[in-house]
Amino acid sequence: MQPDRHPRLARILLMRLPPADRIAGLAAALLLTGCAAPPAPAPVVPVPPEAQAPTDPEAPTSAQCPPTAPEDGQPIQQLLAQTDRLLRLAPPELAREIARLSEAEDASDEAPLLLAIALAQSRQPVDTARALGLVQRTLGNNAPAAQPLHSLARLMEARLLQQRRLEEQQERQAQQLRDAQRRSDQLNERIEAVRTIERSLATRPLPSPPAAPASSNGNSTHPPP
């Protein structure tokens, strides 16, 4: 039974009581009404805390990139060691080494570059042009094994281009010197020809003057008085 219906029920019961007991019943009803416990408040539902993702104290705060493997510098080291050996060779030994490397030009990716280094030591224009072609061939090789050689090949290309410019400049100067020498020789020949003519004129005898004509009959002719 709901609490708000208690007073109504109490009044009905009091009306059915005799007048003598009605006053006592009214007092008891008032007492019960005052002592009745108030309705219990609705239970408070606790608000659950916000769900939080579990944190791992050992988890890294930032993504870490995997370490990159170091590049293999073995071909470069071998090439530099062989280059140092080539620089110490005498001209006859260098010529033999160039012949040997020419036979093994296609044996490996670094063989053309090593041959170019050897050819560059001869200081000959034809060898410089050949070495430059070998270096550019190495730069055009995109194989993974040839990629570490490109840096050294670019340095060699710059050096060979400069060497070729110097050789072309020396060739032009030599050609100008040859032209000047040829003109000098022609001028000397002309001067010598003029001197020869002068000497021939100096040694030639002078012609004698013509003799006077002789008179006829032994008589000299005198002009009339």
From TrEMBL:
PROSITE patterns: PROKAR_LIPOPROTEIN. Residues 179-190 have a biased composition (Basic and acidic residues). Residues 213-225 have a biased composition (Low complexity). Keywords: Signal. Residues 1-42 form the signal peptide. Residues 43-74, 171-190, 198-225 are annotated as: Disordered. This is Lipoprotein. The lineage of its organism: Bacteria, Pseudomonadati, Pseudomonadota, Betaproteobacteria, Burkholderiales.
